[in-house]
Design a protein that fits this description.
MULE_transposase_dom; transposition; Transposase_MuDR; 473 residues; DNA-binding; binds zinc ion
Amino acid sequence: MAPFDLNSDEEYSEDDVVNEYEIEEHRVSEDDDDEVSNPPVFNSSMVYDPNFVLGMKFGTKAEFRKAVQSHAISTKRNLKFVKNDKIRVYVRCNESDCSWRMNALKMPKEDTFQLREYNPNHSCPPTFHVKNVKTGWLSERYAHKFQSDPNRHVKGFRLDVINDIRCHVSKDQAYRAKVKALKMLEGSPDAQYCKLWAYVEELRNSNPGSTIMLGSDNENGEIRFSRLYVCFDALKKGFLLGCRRIIGVDGCHLKGPYGGVLLTVVGTDPNNNLYPIAYAIVCKEMRETWEWFLTALKLDLEIVRPHEYTFMSDKQKGLIQAFEEAFPDSEHRFCVRHLHNNFKNAGFRGISFKNALWKAARATTEGEFADRMKEMRQLSENAANWFDDKPPNQWSRSHFSEHNKCDMLLNNVCESFNSCILDARDKPIITMSEWIREFLMKRLQENRDKAQSRWKGRLCPKIKKFLKKTRRK
Ligand SMILES: [Zn+2]
């Protein structure tokens, strides 16, 4: 028999149990002891440090079982549930010759269980390997350790727990307890949608000046989440202070149970690093959502002369029309990597076509661009014609405007940002939003610290390096 088989009948046959039940009923009714006539009630605050008293009442069977589990751990003994059904829970010490025992019975017409028999004395010694230490118990008992630090390492957590309970906890148990505790702290995805309005309010209060918009739909009288837009004041100010006027826009699919799309806007800071500006969580990526997102962004970034700005994207669904609506005269670059993919899909595969395209994209003067396109035409008339409806100011340096002071050919800033937040994309909505907020806050502060402690002079290090390199040429 497995020591913890809950339905085990080996030691107690059904008849024995009934007899015992009757004897206990008799014993309790005869007893005039104050403690039993007015029995103590187990309180949930005692769950990790229960002090059992004969006659004690437990709200439910689960509460009693949990208290027994905590008792096994605190006394370092292996306890087994030899009977566990609707009306009785019998617990024995796993050492066969030990007389420790506990019997709890259900009270008639209520869920309450009462401790009817209790021998608190073990004749066996304590052990370090207590089998009652289970993942569920660990996750509930120590969930608070992950509340303030969800990234806490399993190794440190395991050592802390062993020090605390002085019982063995395996690495695997510690890992599973951490995963379970984090899930518990997160709450279910549904519950997070219900708390979203309160979360947004808190976000607004703690980040004054930020733009946080929450949209909902009314479906047959039921309010449903439709979109969330977040642009923090610190990021807004940073962009206006010194970022280039080139903005990458991208959308990536979320992997949670309700799907959805995360729209991101990422700029380029004076050191040519990515600079996240705003993000939104929407149900679907379509023209209407992009329009709503870009209109909010236009107000936040105080864009009154759209022609001085350049946007970069992968030509997502509905994005082009949305741009025409929100930023009618702005320049729009297409990521050359995606252009090359489309070029390949049109049948122009192989190294020679790839090189010809990249040479034309990297050309810095209109004359050079014309030469590169001539080379393309020599390679294939059809390949050159394929670019007829792709204006060079969308993909070749030779035709880019100078407003943004940036020769970027790839939408790398958005792709890098999306890969940074990969871990957050399968989380429930509030956890994901908090993950992104913390990531942005830390990144901003780390960059600020780095700049203050290491940077010398007025030029940013990457720009200095770039100037040095081009001077040598
Ligand atoms: Zn014992």
